[in-house]
Design goal:
Blueprint lengths: L1 H16 E7 L9 E6 L6 H9 L4 E6 L8 H7 L3 E3 L12 H13 L3 E4 L17 H12 L5 E10 L7 E7 L3 E2 L13 H17 L7 H21 L4 H8 L2 H21 L1 H21 L13 H17 L1 H26 L6 H28 L1 H40 L1 H36 L10
Parallel strand pairs: 1-7, 2-5, 2-6, 3-4, 3-5
Antiparallel strand pairs: 6-7, 6-8
């Protein structure tokens, strides 16, 4: 019961912290049978929380041993049935106790349970996967060697964050194709054979790469994100007539990741074969972004106004007017929760320092503590003003006002951005149209670069592929 309550609270916390969450590939996850999830690790404790809340299985994690000694977090880890891992880099760690860790993991899997591992070993802010540890492969091969009847699947899970340290950003959790593990008998030392461990670890790494975004250089990832924004905005404008369903598909995080993967592949090819074209494209993107900045228009708002007056009126009545009506409650939510909001951010920066991979973790934990304290303080104030009915009123109104404040400012930001774009269109129509034309040309150049890279790669693959053997008809 405690675990279910914790999962519900953590799910709510994720939904508040992230404006949009997508989960893809759930059909690939069997609801029964021994399963190991392998997960990339870019965002501290937020990563396992995502799997805990959105995997369709009851998951137990391998977690570094120092976590279990931390206030609050240690209690959470034990309550959520995490299993400690003892690492050499942790001060005072006894790595010999990992024999007990592996034994517990194997018992869990033999019972048809689910284990989750971050095989990179540490949370990080690198632009690609770090070399994987062999723990996942060793556990999988070990349990199969002990139980010949067990069927075990390893499922890769990839996490992608649009801006992992930013409040109200977006996140994608994507499950890949299951890996079937082949049995291998223990060697003379009672361990899985080293060659089998290396082979399975390589398969796990390949599967994780298929569900994550990897870039060799920070510059490549940065330009791919900027290019993807322009490319997607162009598509949304060109396909606006497709209706809301099509617009939602265009904004899919899955599609965003796939576009960036294609850009990164094209970037790697042209970086080697035609770096001058990449430099020219990056210069054009920089100039385009600078023109938008000087015009005071966001890329997301740059679309030719085509809505009819009736559509504009309908939008105002159904979307804008209700938000304005909620303004008093939103204002109360802002005033009441602003100190806790700012303090959570200050604590996160102070604790994380320059470690971006744990900023969201600290923000989330701080907010989960500070916001209920705020509601408690409001309940005390309302008690002195209105008695016990005031306490009930405060405990209902305070959380609702916080959520309404979030929605109010997000809707207001969209409304202001759209109004600014319309004003720009009316006052500087020629420049506005030039920006639309340049965006389309940038999109065409990106398509051309990607097509050339794919064609060259396909040609190279065809050259190295051995010819099919000729059937002997004698």
């Amino acid at each position: 019961m405690v675990r279910r309550i914790l999962v519900a609270v953590l799910t709510l916390a994720l939904r508040v912290f992230f404006r949009r969450i997508e989960v893809k590939g759930l059909k690939r996850v069997s609801r029964t049978g021994a399963t190991i999830f392998v997960l990339n690790h870019p965002n501290g404790l937020v990563d396992p929380v995502f799997l805990l809340c959105y995997a369709p299985r009851r998951v137990s994690f391998l977690a570094k041993a120092p976590i279990f000694t931390m206030p609050v977090i240690g209690w959470l880890a034990r309550t959520l049935e995490a299993i400690p891992v003892y690492r050499r880099q942790d001060e005072g760690s006894d790595v010999s106790r990992n024999l007990e860790t592996f034994a517990r993991a194997r018992r869990l899997l033999k019972g048809g349970g689910t284990l989750a591992i971050c095989p990179e070993g540490v949370s990080h802010s690198d632009t690609k996967l770090r070399p994987l540890k062999t723990g996942a492969a060793r556990i999988a091969l070990g349990v199969l060697a002990e139980d010949a009847q067990l069927e075990l699947k390893i499922i890769p899970a990839g996490l992608y964050y649009t801006a992992k340290t930013a409040f109200r950003s977006a996140a994608l959790l994507r499950f890949g194709e299951p890996i079937t593990v082949e049995r291998a008998a223990f060697d003379a030392d009672g361990e899985p054979p080293a060659e089998a461990v290396r082979t399975l670890s390589a398969r796990i790494e390949s599967a994780l790469r298929d569900v994550t975004l990897n870039a060799e250089h920070e510059q490549a990832l940065a330009i791919s994100k900027r290019a993807e924004r322009i490319f997607s905005a162009g598509l949304e404008d060109d396909d606006a007539a497709g209706g809301d369903a099509k617009a939602d598909a265009l904004k899919s995080l899955t599609r965003e990741v796939e576009l960036q993967r294609r850009f990164l592949a094209g970037y790697a090819f042209h970086f080697e074969h035609s770096p001058e074209r990449l430099a020219a494209l990056e210069a054009r993107i920089h100039t385009y972004e600078e023109q938008l900045r000087q015009a005071g228009v966001d890329l997301e708002d740059l679309s030719a106004p085509t809505a009819s007056p009736a559509a504009v009126l309908r939008y105002f009545v159904t979307r804008v007017l209700p938000v304005l009506c909620w303004f008093p409650l939103a204002l109360f939510g802002i005033v009441a929760h602003y100190p806790a909001y700012k303090l959570a951010g200050f604590i996160a920066v102070a604790v994380a320092r320059r470690s971006d991979d744990i900023v969201s973790t600290i923000k989330l934990i701080a907010a989960m503590l500070l916001f209920p304290l705020t509601w408690g303080a409001l309940a005390v104030v309302f008690f002195y003003l209105l008695g016990w009915p005031g306490v009930l009123l405060a405990l209902v109104v305070a959380p609702v006002s916080a959520y309404v404040a979030l929605l109010f400012f997000e809707r207001l930001d969209g409304f202001v951005g759209g109004a600014r774009a319309i004003s720009f269109y009316l006052t500087r129509r020629r420049f506005f149209k030039e920006l639309l034309v340049e965006r389309k040309r940038l999109r065409e150049e990106m398509i051309a670069l990607g097509a050339e890279a794919e064609a060259a790669t396909a040609t190279a693959a065809a050259v190295v592929m051995p010819a099919a053997p000729t059937r002997n008809t004698i």
